[in-house]
Amino acid sequence: MKILTIILNILLVLIIILSVFDGEWQGEDIWYLPLFLSPPVASLYVILRK
User: What does pTM read for this prediction?
Assistant: First the structure.
């Protein structure tokens, strides 16, 4: 289960980062990027820290 969580969080971060490069985050939407990136990154940090 831990491996599945790690894989899904990495995929979610990659999708968000690729959407930035694709141009989906335009104008003031870019200010919401940390809001979408922080939960999966924090989850990965907590899981991988142990």
Answer: 0.83
- Give the whole-angstrom CA distance, residue 17 versus residue 13: 6
- CA nearest to 9, candidates 50, 49, 45: 45
Per-residue pLDDT of 1-50, as tens digits, reads 899 999 999 999 999 999 999 988 888 888 999 999 999 999 999 999 97
* Distance from C-alpha of 21 to C-alpha of 16, rounded to nearest angstrom: 9
Contacts of 40 (CB under 8 A, 6+ apart): 9, 10, 12, 13, 16
| CA 37 to each of CA 9, 11, 27: distance values in angstroms, whole numbers, following the listed order | 10, 12, 18
Residue 26 has which token pair?
Answer: 């335009």
